[in-house]
């Protein structure tokens, strides 16, 4: 399995975990669980989505924006700064 295939498998596994969390929210709402419990489940899903979005965005910057054959792209240092900013925003 190539590096990209391993990374893809990790991302798919994360999506499956998020799907399970969403299913848990549905069950909680259906059974009338406490609002605080539902809010905690919602926060967990939001965290999972934000983390996944950060990972995909980071991969896009590293793999597509930082290719040597492209002209006019930012330096590696600027890209690292962008990644740090996005990660901070998504927390």
Automatic annotation (TrEMBL):
Q: Kindly state which keywords UniProt assigns to this record, in alphabetical order.
A: DNA-binding
Q: Name one GO biological process term.
A: negative regulation of DNA-templated transcription
InterPro entries for the chain: Metal_Tscrpt_repr, Metal_Tscrpt_repr_sf
Does the keyword DNA-binding belong to this entry?
A: yes
Gene Ontology molecular function terms on file: DNA binding; metal ion binding
Q: Which CDD domains match?
A: RcnR-FrmR-like_DUF156
* Family assignment from sequence similarity: Belongs to the FrmR/RcnR family.
Q: Mind telling me what this protein is named?
A: DNA-binding transcriptional regulator, FrmR family
**Whose protein is this, by species?**
Granulicella pectinivorans
Q: Which classification does the entry list for the species?
A: Bacteria, Pseudomonadati, Acidobacteriota, Terriglobia, Terriglobales
């Amino acid at each position: 399995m190539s590096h990209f295939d391993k990374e893809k498998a990790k991302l798919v596994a994360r999506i499956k975990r998020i799907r399970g969390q969403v299913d848990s929210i549905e069950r909680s709402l259906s059974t009338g669980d406490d609002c605080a419990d539902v809010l905690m489940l919602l926060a967990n899903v939001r965290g999972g989505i934000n983390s996944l979005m950060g990972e995909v965005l980071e991969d896009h910057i590293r793999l597509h924006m930082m290719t040597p054959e492209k002209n006019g792209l930012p330096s590696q240092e600027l890209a690292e700064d962008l990644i740090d900013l996005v990660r901070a925003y998504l927390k």
